[in-house]
Predict the 3D structure of the following.
Amino acid sequence: MPRKIAAGNWKMHGDGAALAEIDALMAANPAPSVDVVICPPATLIHRMVSHIGSHPIAVGGQSCHAAIKGAHTGDIAAGMLVDAGATHVILGHSERRADHGETDAMIQAQLETALSAGLQIILCVGETETQYKAGTTQDIVTAQLRHALPQSDAAARIIIAYEPVWAIGTGLVPQDDEIAAVHAAIRALLCDHFGAAGAEMAILYGGSVKAENAAAIFAIANVDGALVGGASLNAAAFSPIIAALARA
Ligand code: 13P
């Protein structure tokens, strides 16, 4: 069985005061059966890691450059995330694809660099509303995955997050059977690509996950957790999602 993972993507939210939410999350004593990862803005990574101390909550970055170092103003190298204490990095988020023109080829290169740096990758895929309405969801998602996945034997360090772009921050969520179909297609592709190791890889759903809908989403086959945006920003909203995953 894949590990259960509750990942929080803070996007461009949070400053030092937000570390109080981490205190509250640790006090809520997240279930040991669930791996919790928080991906704050880069400016908070080091402070958050220090703040968490020996508690098992992991900290991740939200992107990294494909190059190891160089003249790339404003970018972050994978090794710098590791140096700051991060163990994970989100790659391929639709907001990076849309805001920064990141292509499948760029994401594939970032993934190789992040793996070399020793990071675990949360690789995001998902269709736009137009693609959803055109009925091309599975084609889009599997093409994004095929482009990004490495040939190396890295299955144990890659987590997939299926995030329909139209479900992010909108309160909209696909039907259960739609999520099930996409996650089954992702599972089949992972097993095809990585062999038996593909069956052990966590596939997260992301897009408007809240305490109210978490249990129903986690009951869907091949949903091993969630990548949560807005509801991960405060412990009161995120803790019940973690608890629902523990019960699933
Ligand atoms: P929301 O949970 O705010 O919809 O965001 C999802 C997301 O983009 C996580 O990466």
Notes: The beta strands are 4-9, 34-39, 58-61, 88-91, 120-125, 158-162, 203-206, 225-228. The radius of gyration is 17 Å. The first strand starts at residue 4 and ends at 9. The domain at 4-235 is CATH 3.20.20.70 (TIM Barrel).
